[in-house]
Amino acid sequence: MRETDMMERITDNPARSRYELDVDGKVAFANYRKVGSTLHIPYVEAPPSLRGTGAAGRLMRGVMETARADGMKVVPICGYAAHWIRSHPEFHDLLT
């Protein structure tokens, strides 16, 4: 892992109901809706300049690690989120 990757942090923006990853002033985000102890992810987006850089994947890893730390289950509604989780079996236990 590069040093810059380790310095990136996923932040919760509750006012916008989304987790964010700021990469050099550009923000990838995952919208969410919390229902009890379940985190629904309807949409994940990275700006065009971040696409292909792995930013959305780093964002998803941070979202899933946050969900695990908070004791939440995850419902990936977004096609990207669902595909990412299917590709990362270490997070399958978080699926409802």
From TrEMBL:
Q: Name one GO molecular function term.
A: transferase activity
Output the PROSITE patterns linked to this UniProt entry.
GNAT_YJDJ
Xref: InterPro entries: Acyl_CoA_acyltransferase (IPR016181), Gcn5-rel_NAT (IPR045057), GNAT_YJDJ (IPR031165)
Q: Which UniProt keywords apply?
A: Transferase
TM ranges = none
Q: Do the record's keywords include Transferase?
A: yes
The record's section on Pfam families has: Acetyltransf_CG
Q: Which domain of life is it from?
A: Bacteria
Q: Does the keyword Transferase apply?
A: yes
- The chain positions of domain N-acetyltransferase read 11-96
Name of the protein this chain belongs to: Acetyltransferase
Which species is listed as the source? Skermanella stibiiresistens SB22
Q: What taxonomic ancestry is recorded?
A: Bacteria, Pseudomonadati, Pseudomonadota, Alphaproteobacteria, Rhodospirillales
